[in-house]
Write a structure and sequence with these properties.
Strand content: under 5%
Largest sheet: none
Radius of gyration: 23 Å
Structural class: mainly alpha
Distance between the termini: 64 Å
Number of helices: 4
Shape: rod-shaped
Mean pLDDT: 91
Length: 76
């Protein structure tokens, strides 16, 4: 005997499968540990390049300039 095709049931199964295989979308940034310092430097008028140099020399954080730029743009 052939069962009827249940569209709603198949949709629920497909959504559950997608949810199970979906990768997490948020990865914590290394810069989040220094958020208070970075925001204070940005509000004091420092450029992104100056903040990047500060991180590399003073805090010993190895990040790209573009990462600092994106982080400050998002959080600053």
């Amino acid at each position: 005997m052939i069962e009827k095709f249940d569209v709603q049931n198949e949709t629920v199964k497909a959504k559950q499968f997608t949810k199970a295989i979906r990768k997490p979308r948020f990865y914590r940034s290394r810069l989040d540990d220094y958020s208070d310092t970075l925001i204070a430097l940005h509000r004091a008028g420092n450029t992104t390049a100056q903040i990047h140099r500060f991180l590399v020399k003073q805090m010993k954080v190895n990040v790209a300039w573009s990462t600092v730029y994106r982080w400050v743009k998002k959080n600053g």
